[in-house]
Amino acid sequence: MNKLRNFNLPWWLSVGPALLVLCFFMVLPIAIIFSYSLMQADPHGGVVHAFSTDAYLRFLFERDWDDVLQFDLSYFTIFLRSIALAAATTLLCLAISFPAAYYIAGQPPARRNVLLLLITIPFWANLLVRTYCWVLILRDSGLVNTWLGLAGWISSPLPLMYTNGAILIGLVYAYLPFMALPIYATLEKTDWRLINASRDLYANPLQTMRRIVLPLARPGIIAGSIMVFIPSLGAVIAPDLLGGGRKLMIGSLIQLQFSASRNWPFGAANAVILLVFVLLLLYLWRRRGGNTTGAW
Amino acid sequence: MTSNSLIEIQQVIKSYTPAVRALDGVSLTIHENEFFTLLGPSGCGKTTLLSIIAGFEKPDAGAVLLDGADISAAPPEKRPVNTVFQSYALFPHMTVLQNVAFGLEMRGIARAEAQVTAQQTLELVMLNDFSARTPAQLSGGQQQRVALARALANRPRVLLLDEPLSALDFKLRKTMRTELKRLQRETAVTFVFVTHDQEEALAMSDRVAVMSDGCVQQIGTPNDIYEYPANRFVADFIGEANLLEGTAEGQTEGVLNVRLTNNTLLTVTHPNAVDGKVVLAIRPERVLLTKTATTENSPNGTILDITYQGNTTCYTVQLDGGMTITALALSAHGGGGQHFACGETVAVHLHHDSLRLLSE
Ligand SMILES: Nc1ncnc2c1ncn2[C@@H]1O[C@H](COP(=O)(O)OP(=O)(O)OP(=O)(O)O)[C@@H](O)[C@H]1O
Ligand SMILES: [Mg+2]
Predict the structure, then answer these.
(1) What is the residue-averaged pLDDT of chain B?
(2) Is B253 on the interface with A (CB under 8 A)?
(3) Measured between CB atoms, which of A197, A211, A215 is closest to B89?
(4) B158 Cβ under 8 Å from any chain A Cβ
(5) Of A151, B33, B82, B97, which is least surrounded by CB within 10 A?
């Protein structure tokens, strides 16, 4: 820090690039989305430049033929389902990642690197392709149903596709590394002698896990949870391919408004609602004494 | 001191990799209420032996007995043994008080009661005002004392200390030595103390086990191992020693004749008859230099080098026929502290009671 300051760069040169990036990649797009959400929809796509709160009203109400607002929860339900699925994804990722990361961190360094590589390998293939593979596995004529049929355990295919479960599988599969890597990073830094110390002080393996390992891994667990929860809340590919448009999530809903439904303001409003919800969560988390960098 | 045996290590062998044996058949007995020290150079297996007593490592062969019962297979949490780690290993996410109370809580003592005991133990190491801090907010010496309190609070049968003083500065180290001795006396816990500092070992211990290359070389009181080193390694490792090689030439009435390689004939007090090549050891402070020779064991030599060390002065003397010997004497009053001058011829007295015959 101090070293950097010693170069005596003019302030605009040192913070300038960062400000530019923030402006162009964050402030400007969000400003555009926000302003679009308060305009009227052009039925041919795009927006009419006139102020309107219709987009936000539509989230909770439906306008009937007499132009009267009726309470309608169908969009809100999509929102709730998204939150539930994202939360379930986060928990499942945690349940799978923690033991895996714990195991990897306990291996000799050479083996560790191989195992980490294995975790990150799926990253190298396109997410769309990887998710489509799950379609091949889960559909009526897919691997699972074929095998179960051959084994004689089922007579007709199980309805695996186009369910919340299918979406959940896709999401967990897509975001698992985002949970595993930060947890691994904190566990790897942990002094293993602390575990010996805990056992020495009469704690059995379970107590050692609860009192020593989990608290020390907390920063990684928090970072991983944030990195899984937020993107899976807005995910598009898994719900589209595996939910087949029957089980919409908020990400697909937004995408739909900008494409087929041609209602840009409503899409923008949904994006704003999602953003505000996430910021609110983070804010509540911090106020509760936690913090996003995860220090205890 | 009672001499009931508390811990018995029987023929313990341990290798981490097939090629190297960290412990190569170690046997020793540690008595109740004893301050027992494991002393040896880096890598000789001291930490490994502690880990086996604590239960972090399982011996490949051999057994560890506590009160006569084999505990070799018991996990660490089932042993009435606590460790002060070389690295302290304090729990960074707990306060000092929580650290010290941890062991008590894990043994099922109610939190409130555990914290009272913890606070009392912190008083014992004079850290009662620091209980609310976290380990990161303490100095190295304070952390070390927390580690000590955390282990002692459980009143274990045996306290294992792995080079607990090595990270401290010289002054603090001296204070902590007395402190540890006091704690051991007050708590009546058996201490097994690991160090590679021989001065520390001699100053603090009831008994010392000298180790090298995974083997115990000698076990005895500090005085025993200093005055009667069992072999060349011990004589060389503990303090300074002049090692003189020669051949045994017959024994009469407890006195052995040894002819050194430079042809000097020495007599040594030694009970048994010995044949062939032998090594004699004598401490520099036992070597006496005079201007004139007397009857026996006083070959002539020339002073090669003089090192003034304040309270003592060290003389390097070349015996006639090659072979150098170091003599240590209290510094003289005048004459720059020196009794002799460089190049002067002196008689080197090697008293037959001060010479020790070593096994190789
Ligand atoms: N976990 C391990 N894996 C492989 N080899 C080990 C391991 N721990 C120790 N060793 C080896 O076993 C031998 C004994 O090690 P140990 O730690 O017991 O030595 P020490 O006497 O405590 O040394 P120091 O005074 O440096 O602490 C050494 O040769 C060391 O390299
Ligand atoms: Mg060691």
Answers:
(1) 90
(2) no
(3) A197
(4) no
(5) A151
